[in-house]
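#random but structural
TW: two for the price of one
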Amino acid sequence: MSASENPNQQKKPQKKIEGDVSFFANVTLRVFQSVFIFIIVAIILLGSLGAGVGAGYFASLVEKTALLDKESYDRAFGNITETSHITYANGERIATISSDLVRTTVASDEISDLLKNAIISTEDEHFYKHKGFVPKAVLRALISEATGIGSSGGSTLTQQLIKQQVLTDETTFQRKANEILLAAHAEKFYSKDEIVTTYLNISPFGRNNKGQNIAGVQEAALGIFGVKASEVNLAQAAFIAGLPQSPIVYSPFTNTGELKEDYSYGLERKDFVLFNMYREKIITKEEYEEAKAYDLSQDFLPQQTVETNNHGFLYYAVLDASVETLAKHNAEADGISKEKFAEETTYQSYRTKARRELENGGYTVTSTIDRSLYDAMEAAVNDYGYMLDDGSGIPVETGSVLMENSTGKILAFLGGRDYGTSENNHALDTMRQSGSTAKPPFVYGPAIDQGMIGSESLISDYSTTYTNGSPVSNAGGTASNTFQTVRKALQVSSNNTAVNTYRDLQKKMGSANFVYDNYLSKMNFPISDNSWQEESAALGSTVITTLDMTNAYQTLANNGVYQEGYMIESIVDNQGNVIYQHEADPVQVYSPAAASIMMDITKSVIDAGITTSYKNILYSLDGNLANTSWAGKTGTSENNVDSWLIVSNPAVTLSNWSGKDNNAVMYGDTGARSGRFMAYLTTRLYQANSGIFAVDRKFELAPDVNSVYVSSFTGLKKGSFQHNGATIQDPGKDILSLWATQDVPTSKYQFGLGGTMANYDSYWSGQGKEADKDKDKDKDADKDKDKDKDNPDSSSSDSSSSSSSSSSSESSTEPPASSTTPETEPPASETEPEIPEPPTPAPESGGE
């Protein structure tokens, strides 16, 4: 039989193939089963190990946590009435902190079930299921702690009670672990109804229709809707339950009890609560839709007034400073870095804890505020605030800070004209462009400190542009088309010279952010995007507060040493233990030489009276006060939106900003109005407490200032030099210039900052010489002024009229060659025995 006919020989290969497939399949299956079993076992083991590690870690964190007895919990949960006080510097009471918080606790049966269910469905949907904490939240917290990713999750109502009333200010996972442990433990002593009732009695609920801060659900119902907590309807209950997350934002009332123009945030939050109640099947769809459509605005109470409420700028400013100070202090005590503290979550956590500590801790907070000075500021703005108005019908707001130079102590401040009209604190909080007040601390101070210029160095005031091609313009829109000394540039507030200096400083130091990094950051100025790198920062384009600018001038007046402005001197508990005591932390920002040179220059700005009539008016009000060394600078932002005047003497710095809350243009001569108001304000302060002004002290140059004679033509040491193959002799006269360096360069063709070669050619070809002749004329005029001091009956022009002249009209004059500018008496005709009538100026353009 042939092979092809033998069936056995044909089937043998097929069986082998089938056997091979079966073998491989069996092996594969067994391997898969083994691997699968291994993976399952590994997962179980790893899970067990992870759980064990997590449990062990949790146990290690709470190992030393002492569990409380019920009496301790009762005391903690009931600790809501211990009041704290804030005082003036002399110990006189400003207010009781808790007096601004109206709270009435009620029993469970006095709270509607609608309110309880609304708060539970929104804040703790598993409230009736958990034993104080939600296990999956613990897992999230462990993962977050281990990986540093994500958040630890929300807290139950019980945890929130523990966090608010029992624990310290720590924000670590250890505090979270303690919170979980104590929450679970507390639930052994309290029923669910007791816990939610306590929560509703403790939580803040915004403001009532009297403008008072309220806490507890009873005051919320009474103060918002005029009904008891047991009488609210569904829509009202949902609105109230939505408030604790952000009470002031969601509150329908302002601090005066007036209904907000826009209270939509609270209504949207109410709808969110209703949806949660519907989702949790607490209410039906019909009830949800009906309550959502309910017109809640008809239930809001009309505004009412309280018998006494002296809370205004002072109370809220000191309270906020107290919270901020205590929050920082506690964070430092916990070892929290400045970077970590700056994170929003950490920052808000410490602020919340500090606020609670102040409200309930029985503390006495002593501020730096001198009551006589603060009252004088309030009286001055009430009597003379109208001087700032421009006749447009839109009120001009204002803010001022009086700071002690040697310490940074805020002696008094002026938040605005009327707290009831505008709650914006224009001294401490409002951020506006600083205009030309930026030039001394941001531009010329650093340039002098770096040895780039001296007081009589020359800077181009020829027409120029920013690097992006946009034109730089002086007030009045013209340039003097010459080179101006630093002193004169500040006296006439030239913008061209400031931009040229700032730009050359950036180039020489090799960093567009040089000024911020090396000067402003040391004074804790806020950084915003790349705004400090822009050349327009030289003209005050970056927004900052009045307090920021006051601190900058305080630093210059204090030999270049920054002392951060502060308002809280100490915080003491009810047992007399010192919780916080201010300690000085001086920072040398400018060299003493550079700072004293800047004070010499800015003193000449006030004495010259070109951009402000402040000193002349001050003479008419109090000659002794006017005769002290006043240094300072004016400032006006683009389109006359902001007006500034900041002055310093050796003892104090006083600032003033004015403008409109809606950023509208101010008409007329804003500089003249600011100068007049500031003169009256300074006089009122001096009358209240003359000692703080130390009028007998004078600014003095630092010992290491280099007083050197330079050429009036180049601002450099006189000499000859080669240019285009020719020897050129500096044609200028000797004038005294102040430098912060011993290395003063000698004359050269391109002697100044800024300017094109064409500008220098023009200057050297003869225009500069004509300007130099004008400088000599000015020196003669200054000598005449000195003679006038011995002849008080002699007539002279009113500097208030010169304050409205443009910088170009002043560009041909030069300040005295001496290192200090002599005091000048005001015109004999400049007397103001009575308060002038409110002005009604016609709209016109202006600014510098």
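TW: number two ↓
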Amino acid sequence: MANKIYGLLIFIFTASVVFAQNAGLKGQIIDKKTKEPLSGAYVHFDDKKGGAITDAFGQYFISNVLPGFYKVKVKYSGYEQFKAEIELTVNSTSKLNIELSEKVESIETVNIYSKANTESETSSRRSEKNAANITNVLSAQAMQRSPDINAANALQRVSAVTLQRNSGSDEAYAIIRGLEPRYNNTLINGVKVASPDPASRFISLSIVPSDLLEKIEVSKSLTPQMEGDAIGGTVNLVFKDAPETQYFKVNGSLGYSAIFFNRKFDEFSHGAVQTKSVTEKFGAGYTAHPGNFSRANLDFVKKNAPLTSLLGFTYGHRYFKNKLGFIIADSYQNQYYGTNSQFNIAQLDSRPGKGYQPVISDVANRTYSTQQLNNGLSAHIDYRFNDKNKIGLDNVFLYTYIAQSRLSIDTSIIGGNGGRVGPGTGAVFNDNRSGIQEQSVENLKLHGTHVLSNHLLFDWAGVYSNAIQKSPDRAQVSTNKLINPDFSSTPDYLYAVSRIWQKSGNKDVSVLANLAYKTGLGKGSSIEIKAGGLYRHSTRYNSQNEYKLRPTPTATGGKSPFIDIYSVDWLVYNVTGSLASDKANYTAYENIAAGYGQVKIALNNFDITGGLRVEGTEQGYDTHPVVLDIRSNAKKTYTDALPSIQLKFKLTDKSNIRASYFKSISRPALYELVPTPTFGESTDVTGNLDVKHSVADNYDIRYELFPKNEEQLFIGAFYKNITNPIEFALTSLVSGQANTSPQNFGTAKVTSAEIVYSKYFGKIGLSGNYTYTYSKISTTKIYTSTDASGGVTSPITAVKLQSRPLQGQTGNVVNVSLLYKNDH
């Protein structure tokens, strides 16, 4: 026993001595010219594993290194590589401060493997400064410093960007430069992604966890190599790339939604939601009966504020002498939130002396309680054959589960069941709804980059994108009662129950390739000639099946009072459902073929990038053959030539002036072409095959100043002239439910000014932006009135021209943030 203890003591002593004899290296890396710290520089020893990446202050520390002589190397994109020999001594930490010189890129050759920490704020400012077009970049580092948990939250910190809410009342879709989401597009790693939303071309940004992202790029002007369907701008979500050193990160948080401190969360049984409709369970032609429909999902229970939880991890590494790299990241978010809102129903007031003026006829007070579970998984792997050839595979999977209850009390202000004679009287409807919505998006991209010669670079990609949305068993129960003039009330009676199963899907297959030739022109100037093309085949389908339930009449033909959802009797009104004849069932497709030519000339203090892009589009649909009052199938084609020119004047090393012109388009969503109704929250939409795509001429100017690595000042303005803007026009109003259709309305003009500012005072920073946008469009409106005497019994209508802003246009946008950085 004594020998064992003695041996153990020797081992501990020896290990302690060895550990104590280790050495270390620390220091700071700065720009040789500006003396600014460089964040994200990679410091390592030659032919040795390990190393360090500099923090926000340019500082690094490498510990537990055996004493001896080492070759130190530093890599940082845009700078010359640093090499030095240093001796590390026993029991000490040596200090090595390094100044890096900015790299002057070779104008004679092309290269592809300059690698840096592109997640830093310094890298984002450099990208904005060097970009050929007008761009804003939001780095992963900026998102980490903020409380933003998804891409939608984070985007609000970009100038001229606001968010439109989705059906779950969460911020979801980007409004860029005051233009609604239809005028913008969303990319994943540079390529458009399929959308699970049947009513749009874009994904909900709220389902993209911010901790999966390397950066977000918002392009406000387009070069010929970029897809042309973006009038407002393009949002490119860049997911994490394989790191140069081993990387591991875990994050988590807990919290509550403050709204549920003032009211309860309305919960229903998720297990009672039937994932398959009666038709799917028992086959077409089956006669449904009342027992086929669950009830617990219409039983709403009050619950105290539920706990919100977030958890994520990221791991990446490189192997085989840095040839093979991979990274995997997962993020889980379980959130609870709610909204309180009021929905007003309007109609023409036909009461004597009211002159048929618009009046609110019903007021619905609505409370929403929503659980949203997001799970995002991102994986990347790449292989470097040599310094001239690299291939990679990216896979992004996004999943969201939304369970929402909506409790609505609808009070008639005028008219109604029995009439309203004063405040607190008249018909009162309770419309309570439960629903679950699942969305999934998978995007798989295989890509490669190849240096064919000293002047020639070729890159390619093949992308498969699949998006699905399921809304099984959306259930709504409506009850009503009448409050009499003496404030006595009838019992609640069952009015109607509806059950809807809906499913939609979108698949995209894309192939693209680019070939670039670069050579010098002498005296520090160069020219790059680039050409490429893209082909995309996209398909979409929508399937819907609705069952309508009605109360069982009493023996005398009346209604039984509504006590609760479990005791009420109902009958199935349409026993076979609507699947066989529902107008909302359709398939649609879109084929896009595009090619471009682009030239970039870089002089000492002036860059010019320009060229032409041509895009051909074919769109079509097939709907249910039973629907006889519409065209059951149709297609349309069109071609657009989209010129672009970008000018950049380099005033100093820290400032630019940019000016640009580009032509772009906005295609209608596929569902907007199908002449069948799609049911919404309060508005139904019927498609219009004759609606034309929008075409815009876009003009931009911007002054840029980059005082320090993480600081900026942008002042800019733009003007857009949009031909055939797509606006929704009211076609009918039935029982307060509006039916609209997409239409073209002449020409719209949009002007704007914006300013962006960020400044750090030590560790404390101030960031803000302001955008003013003015838009004008003239459309025809129907005005209703009486004659001069007011004595007519029917309205007089007249068509007049009205000038107004574009639908969904945001006039003023302000965002101010107080920041703290301590990235040690």
